[in-house]
Amino acid sequence: WNSLILKKQHQLTEGIKDGEYMYFVHSYYAPVCDFTVATSEYVGVEFSAVVSRENVAATQFHPEKSQQAGLRILKNFGEWKC
């Protein structure tokens, strides 16, 4: 479990508070870039947790295992008007 650091406003993160915890389990990560919407940090390394470019978006964490905050992100995915 790691907290999100919101970097930009995006429909996927509507209703998500800065610092909400999400379930991460991967050993690989995406670097922070111009398309980063939210980051997280592990052992001092900041990485992209949510990215979006045009009509494509992705999360590094498992929203389906991230309790209410994760369910909110899944709901936002379903309602996203790209």
UniProtKB/TrEMBL annotation:
Gene3D superfamilies per UniProt: 3.40.50.880
UniProt EC number: 2.4.2.-
Catalysis: reaction(s): 5-[(5-phospho-1-deoxy-D-ribulos-1-ylimino)methylamino]-1-(5-phospho-beta-D-ribosyl)imidazole-4-carboxamide + L-glutamine = D-erythro-1-(imidazol-4-yl)glycerol 3-phosphate + 5-amino-1-(5-phospho-beta-D-ribosyl)imidazole-4-carboxamide + L-glutamate + H(+); L-glutamine + H2O = L-glutamate + NH4(+)
UniProt organism field: Flexistipes sinusarabici
Keyword presence, Plastid: no
Keywords, ordered alphabetically: Amino-acid biosynthesis, Glutamine amidotransferase, Glycosyltransferase, Histidine biosynthesis, Hydrolase, Lyase, Transferase
Assembly information from the UniProt record: Heterodimer of HisH and HisF.
Domain annotation Glutamine amidotransferase: ranges: 1-77
Pathway assigned in UniProt: Amino-acid biosynthesis; L-histidine biosynthesis; L-histidine from 5-phospho-alpha-D-ribose 1-diphosphate: step 5/9
Biological processes, Gene Ontology terms: L-histidine biosynthetic process
Record-given protein name: Imidazole glycerol phosphate synthase subunit HisH
Top-level class of the enzyme under EC nomenclature: transferase
GO molecular function: glutaminase activity; imidazoleglycerol-phosphate synthase activity; lyase activity
Record gene name: hisH
